[in-house]
Amino acid sequence: MDESAISTEALVKTYGRNRGLTGLDLRVERGEVYGFLGPNGAGKSTTIRLLLDLIRPTSGRISVLGVDPRHAGVALRRRIGYLAGDFVVDGRQTARELLTYLGRLRGGVPTARITELADRLDLDLDRRIRALSKGNRQKVGVVQAFMHAPELLILDEPTSGLDPFLQHEFLALVREARAAGHTVFMSSHVMSEVQQTADRVGIVREGRLVTVERVEELRERAVRRVEVQFADPVRVEEFAALPGVSAATVTGTTLRCRLDGRADALVKAAAAHTVVGLLSEEPDLEELFFGYYADQGEVGRVAA
Question: Within 10 A of 179 (CB to CB), how many other CB atoms are there?
Fold first, then answer.
C-alpha cells in the first residue's frame, strides 16, 4: 500500500486534441502542506479533479490516502475536505442548513464546530446562500472543507473572494490542520499564502511537474537585493568580484548589489569598514516562481 497522502505516476489526461496532463509524477507526504503552483492552463485544476475522481484519467495511476479514488467512493470522500475557487451550491438553503446537511453526509459534525468556524470567519449562518456575496459564499466553502477535520484537504484557489483579514484566518486554519497531522494540498495564485504555510512547492508546466522544492531551499538559493550604508565612501572594486555578488554599484557611501547564495564573503568585506545600515530584500515566492519560468524560456506559454 502506498503510504503517501497523494501519489500519481505517469498521469495523462487528454481533452480531444488538447492535453491537460502529459505524464504527471506527484508525491505528497502525509502531514505536510504542499503548494501546487502554475499559471492558468498548466494543469492544476485538472490534477485536482482527477484526485477527487470528478474526471477520469486517460492513462496513469492515482493513489489518494493509499487507495484508488476511482474505486474507493464514499468512504474515501468522507476523509477528504475539498474547496474549489468558486464555491457554488443551491442558494435556497441557509448556510446553517447546508452545512448541517453536509455534516450528516460526512458521518456527523458537531454543531459547535460549525458555529466556531463561522464565528472565526464572520459568517452569518442564517442568511440564505443566494443572498450572500461571493466572499461570503466562499466562507461557507471554507467551513464545509474544514469542519469534519479531514485527513486530507484539497484546496483549489481557496481564498478567492476573501478579504485580507479572512485570508489570514484561513492560513491559520491550514497551519492548525498541519499541526494536527493532517495533509493539505493547495493550488494557488496567491504566492504569499503558499509562502507562509507550505513545506514544499511543486511547479507544474505544460501538464508536467518540472520541479519540487522546499520553501526554505528556494529562499536560500534566491537572488537578494542588498544595500549597505557605510560611514565613509567605499570603492565598488572591493565588492564587485566577491562570490555571489553581481550588479554592484556605489553611490557616495551606499553599496547596492545583487547577492546569489551565501552572504559570508560580502559581510566579511563590509566588516572592514564602519557599517551604518544593512538592508537585504528577499524575493517572495512569486518572483522565484516567475524566475523559474523565465529560466525555462516559457513564461506564459503553457498548455491549455
Answer: 9
36-56: pLDDT as tens digits: 988 777 889 899 999 999 999
- Tell me 15's DSSP state: E
Which cell numbers hold the place of 90? 443551491
Q: How would you class 164 by CB atoms within 10 Å of its CB: exposed for 0-12, middle for 13-18, buried for 19 or more?
A: exposed
Round to whole Å and give the CA distance between 124 and 131.
11
User: CB of 32 within 8 A of CB of 24?
Assistant: no
CB 92 within 8 A of CB 47: no
Give me the residues paired with residue 9 across strands: 61
The fold for domain 6-214 equals Rossmann fold (3.40.50)
Relative to beta strand 33-37, strand 200-205 is parallel
Within 10 angstroms of residue 111's Cβ, the number of other Cβ atoms is 11
Rounded distance between C-alpha atoms, residue 244 and residue 239, angstroms: 10
pTM for this predicted structure: 0.77
223-281: which CATH number, 1.10.10, 3.30.70, 3.30.1960, 1.10.238?
A: 3.30.70
228 CB-contact burial (10 Å; exposed 0-12 / middle 13-18 / buried 19+): buried
State how beta strands 183-187 and 33-37 pair.
parallel
